[in-house]
TrEMBL record:
The active site is at residues 460, 844. Gene3D superfamilies: 1.20.80.30, ATP-grasp fold, A domain, ATP-grasp fold, B domain, Phosphoenolpyruvate-binding domains, Phosphohistidine domain, Pyruvate Phosphate Dikinase, domain 2. It is an enzyme of class 2 (transferase). Its EC number is 2.7.9.1. GO terms for molecular function: ATP binding; kinase activity; metal ion binding; pyruvate, phosphate dikinase activity. It comes from Brockia lithotrophica. This is Pyruvate, phosphate dikinase. The lineage of its organism: Bacteria, Bacillati, Bacillota, Bacilli, Bacillales. Residues 524-882 form the PEP-utilising enzyme C-terminal domain. Keywords: ATP-binding, Kinase, Magnesium, Metal-binding, Nucleotide-binding, Pyruvate, Transferase. It catalyses: pyruvate + phosphate + ATP = phosphoenolpyruvate + AMP + diphosphate + H(+). It comes from the Bacteria. NCBIfam families: PRK05878.1, pyru_phos_dikin. Belongs to the PEP-utilizing enzyme family.
Amino acid sequence: MSEANVRATKKWVYAFEEGHQGMRDLLGGKGANLAEMTRIGLPVPPGFTITTEACTAFYENGRKIPDEVWEQTKEALRALEQKLGKRFGDPENPLLVSVRSGAPVSMPGMMDTILNLGLNDETVEGLARLTGDRRFAFDAYRRFIQMYGDVVLGIPHARFEEIIEEIRAKEGVASDPEVSAAGWEEVVRRYKELVLKATGSPFPQDPYEQLYGAVRAVFDSWNNQRAIVYRKLHKIPDTLGTAVNVQAMVFGNMGDDSGTGVAFSRNPSTGEKVLYGEFLTNAQGEDVVAGIRTPEPIERLKERLPGVYEEFTRTVELLERHYKDMQDIEFTVERGKLYFLQTRTGKRTPQAAVRIAVEMVEEGLIDKETALLRVDPEVVVKLLHRRIDENAKLTPILKGLPASPGAGSGRVVFDADEAEAWAKEGEKVILVRAETTPDDIHGMAVAQGILTSRGGMTSHAAVVARGMGKPAVVGAEALRIDEAKGEAYVGDIVIRKGDVISLDGGTGYVYLGEAPLVEPTLGEHFRTLLEWADEVRRLGVRANADTPEDARRAREFGAEGIGLARTEHMFFAPERIPIVQEMILAETEEERAAALEKLLPMQEGDFTEIFRVMDGLPVTVRLLDPPLHEFLPNYEELLLEVEELRRDPSRAAELREKEALLRKVRALREANPMLGHRGTRLGITHPEIYAMQARAIFRAAFRLKREGYDPRPEIMIPLVGHVRELELMREVVERVYQEVREEFGFDISYLVGTMIEIPRACVTADEIARVAEFFSFGTNDLTQTTFGFSRDDAEGKFLQTYLEKKILKDNPFIVLDRDGVGALMRIAVEKGRSVRPQLKLGICGEHGGDPSSVEFCHMIGLDYVSASPYRVPVARLAAAQAAIREKTGQGLIRADV
């Protein structure tokens, strides 16, 4: 059959009653849920869905709706007319529809919606006669022209709003519901004049032309800038496309017995099992999410329409039981009758995600494994939100709605583009807006927090901030903003662009200046979830920690040892740098030995405290890794100092000293220090350095053992590429151990291993494993040496272009490159264990805290991952999810396809 015939016979459009929730990929999330709600008998206005496949065909057809898709759309519309006894474009009994997007993955607010489609100069009169409400009819018509003009015709929203403001001022009213019928008729007339002036054509009166334009615009909105940014932020594939949902209109703006609202079956900020949402009387849905009017809490619906409230709460409970997850529900009440327009899995804060998952297990709705899969490991790190120190003596200048928890400080900016630009320069910013729109997504993504003067807890700012894990305060009505001047006002207080403010998204308070922040602690639900994770994961989880404080925090977060203690970080302490420089600049072995003797007790103290904190758990200590010049003054700055001294004869002695230092720094300079005289190469040329470190490690361990502690040192030799390097360094370590053992008179257990971070080490791992008792993959350097990238140069110069051009899907320094770096790791695992079956295998690069990378480590059989202390909980959860997916055959994450 030809492609044309296939397209002609293919089903592109489905009535709601023809679908179900399992058809998400084809019908989009919204369409699948509308079909499912219809299937289980809820009051859903009828309609149909144009599939995501039609969206793909639209782009393949040069951004034109294929004829066969349009024919099936018109057939579905005729079926809808018969179902409702109304006709599209009929002046006496018009059918009006909404046209909404609906991608397979929820992208709230990112794409376009049009309501009241089908109105024109004739049908608006018919609607007025049918309802006996001329004001309502023209309110609906002006809304349609405004949305169609913005979405389809590209006329800025603000130009329509200016006209409404003029009419409100003319009639002396403050809000849209107070505008008269005559006022809305004048708005409609002026809107049509605006359309004609802006486009050169009158506003379309043919409802089919309107529908065609709306469907095309929704398909087009899949690739609008805000949708692209959102997909990039949330790693949503660009190939999915969006469905289009065409649904019969119901009207929440028909008087005081009508209204619209958004509600969550549980509190999306805290996870508490209470109905949470907002309702606007005499309004349409866009009024709530756009923040045009400040809505009332959902509980007020109980007072206004008690019967509707009772039916609503019953149905919300039914939906949550049916979907077995917290639901985000849009609804409309038309003259006392309740309709459900959408349900979807609700966006929630990290705190709420954990609480909901745990409590749903306790309620018997889901099992533990489902709960573990429900929580995105990446949001776990956001659970550790900072908060404002309650001991700080602060006076808030402003109070808004606490829309998304956490606290942040930064410089005020009033524009999303400016927020992005400042953030690129390293500034911390707070984005302050009257209300955010989907076009602000890029500014919100880089901000430390978001503050708005309008909108409620389900406004765009609130929902997006919660999804991003950003603190947000919304609906701060005492805040007046003058974007043109770059100023905001709270009473007599003036906040200018660039001023620093702090906000607390948990309380809604805003403060002038930078507030002191404190680090969070794990909550009861979080601990429970992580305990469940520990029950099912196979991978161990350690921490990268260089100080006793880091080690203590890591242990609090559930680390089962230290996978990387970087000794060079201990050398960088200000009081130690002069001694390290003395060691480096030593002209004789005796001078170097004297400097090392000074460093020895310092290192011993470091290791003593870390071993004490990690009592009974393994601690992997990496011997000195970076090149020695990193501890010396900057060459260019030193050269300038010498030039200056040469111009001053009175400072000859100082000049001689600086010139000697310059000669040494010049001698140590390298063309490519990342591949130069560092790691084990340093140990081979200066074995006394590694001997001093080994002595400090063993002395600390022996002393603690004598005191009754259980130290478990693992000594790691970095940058090994040849087995002979490791043999020589192991000889140094074992000689020092025997010397310290004789001093103390008893034995301790220890391991000697290596960091695998060079491709040659991977492909000769069988040779290296004969000497090494453990491998720890240093994937930061292994990524550099595999790609031939210098990380600093790559990230600063070309890596972003590689991501944009889709040469790489992810930054390989953040998400492990499975096909290249991962292939080398597989070789090392197989070869290493072929020689030493019990070889301990771990990873200590930054990838140890990335969920996709953790999963890969599970797949290839590593024993543990090691991550920064704050990512230990992420790794615990990610390791559990990898084990569950493997056991249940749900398929593993592929971050690189």
